[in-house]
Amino acid sequence: MSPVASPYMPEIHDSTVSALDIPDDLTIPQFFLDTAHAARPDRSSDTPCLIEEDTGRKIYFSELRERTFGLANALSLRWRIGEGDVVCILSPNHVDYPVVIWAAHRLGATVTAAEPSFSTVEEIAHSLIATNASFIVVHPDFLKAAVAAARKADIPVYRIILFDAVTGSGAPASHPVLNNLIQDGLKLEAQFEEKRLSAGDAKSKVAFLSFSSGTSGLPKATAISHYSVIANVVQRAVHNKVNEDHAPLDEQRFRPGDISAAVLPLFHIFGVTNIHFMLFCGMSTVVMPKFDFQGMLKSIVRHRITHLFLVPAQIVLLCKNPAVKKYDLSCVRFCLSGSGPLPAELAQQLCAIFPNASICHSYGLTELGTTVSMTSLSQRIAVSGSSGSILPGISTRVMTEDGRLAAPGEQGELWIKGPAMAMGYADDQTATLETFVDGWMRTGDLVYIRDNEIFVVDRLKEIFKVRGFQVSPAELEGHILSHPDVVDVCVVGVPDEYSGEVAMAFVVLNPDAAAQAQRDLKQSRKAKMGIMKHVVDVKANYKWLSGGVEFVDTLPRTATGKLLRRHLRDQARESRAR
């Protein structure tokens, strides 16, 4: 579809790419481990890059470079990993996760990752086959699944190595342990010659095959270049004026020596770009193996964490769980919500939980190298409903249903182009052509733009119509979450003979309310009516929960916290069809 010219709104351009100084002849490790940049502050020698959460072990810049070289040397010598290979990482967050990434990239290989905790052997095998992976680095807890998946994908078991030794029995001889390989590699002269790229090559060299969240279908392997990751980090640095003397040090958003938490999974590209951004800013990152709510609160206090990158599901826990009051969280000076819209009510509660913090929002997609917008540096608290201002170097269009450019403030599908945009979907030309059109990426998100800020209404595929009126599940979920008894919610459209579809809510109650509802059917009905009235009191009648309320113990989500709405929608429709 080609856009129709509009007299109301031209393309929005924040700035030119050339002003960002993004090198296009470097790989990711060459840029982040070997190269200085004007936007990059100096890192103090006593500031660690990574901190292991449980042990407090600190890894400094020089050790990171050494470990990367040692592993690359061993992988080259023993398995001849190099150009054309795809290395799959199957592990929760680990301090050596970045080392594996950079070692593979030093050798010219591509990196992919599979979600370990909730994936079946078949799903892991699908990831291996879809990316043509030839080597696996796995956490010992998932070795059995990795071996089974490798067999299905025709990967020899001797091409599987472990992050750590198997507890108790030691690692089998056929599965070497990462640290031993690193030490072996450091004892030898270089067994490989690192490729130097020509101008422009970083834009076409695939660094990651990263799977999209797959909330509306099977995840697709997105091809992300070395240039894309570098560009997104530089864009974020320029947007936040990193290494610029624009304000007193204590008022600057990202400073050398600050401490962030890697609580988001590193098998997702958002977690990957975050850890590279922290490294670029001269900050330390506490690597948490997985998200554990109480553990995160303890870690914030123990490590004096200053920066949090979270998703709305985690923020809901912060705002709804009474355990938060037991912890002194005054050290947090920055909290960002990404990966989905944050209801205004939760943003207000977050300000009380982190009184010393800037509360920021961001918007992004895997296909765009993650971050597209972030709360402006001039705003300590994000504008309600906004996903932030557009990063430098990004152009946007808002396209209406009839194919014209939207007027200012008018809703439509967001189209984006920028330097961090992905190359397309691996081995899926049809999906690539549908999503990437004439240099633009169609996001599938319904938005409007005001004063250079993006306001996300909802996913176009998730919006449903009641008597011809559009209903946004995200809008209703944000309001329902303000009910004191509700800790989580998912709204779906279900078939209705008169209205076409009507709204239905799957609700997780807080423990006290849930216990009352389970004990007494009358109390359960009363609680459901109370939630429905909560909507009736403030929303138009076509947005009411005419499909009812169903209480559930948990909601299905991806590892990055996104609702698997299609699962509940299918469940609701099957139930009503009986």
From TrEMBL:
<protein>
    <recommendedName>
        <fullName>Phenylacetyl-CoA ligase</fullName>
    </recommendedName>
</protein>
<dbReference type="Pfam" id="PF00501">
    <property type="entry name" value="AMP-binding"/>
</dbReference>
<dbReference type="InterPro" id="IPR045851">
    <property type="entry name" value="AMP-bd_C_sf"/>
</dbReference>
<dbReference type="GO" id="GO:0016405">
    <property type="term" value="F:CoA-ligase activity"/>
</dbReference>
<dbReference type="InterPro" id="IPR000873">
    <property type="entry name" value="AMP-dep_synth/lig_dom"/>
</dbReference>
<dbReference type="InterPro" id="IPR042099">
    <property type="entry name" value="ANL_N_sf"/>
</dbReference>
<feature type="domain" description="AMP-binding enzyme C-terminal">
    <location>
        <begin position="475"/>
        <end position="562"/>
    </location>
</feature>
<dbReference type="InterPro" id="IPR025110">
    <property type="entry name" value="AMP-bd_C"/>
</dbReference>
<dbReference type="InterPro" id="IPR020845">
    <property type="entry name" value="AMP-binding_CS"/>
</dbReference>
<feature type="domain" description="AMP-dependent synthetase/ligase">
    <location>
        <begin position="41"/>
        <end position="425"/>
    </location>
</feature>
<dbReference type="Pfam" id="PF13193">
    <property type="entry name" value="AMP-binding_C"/>
</dbReference>
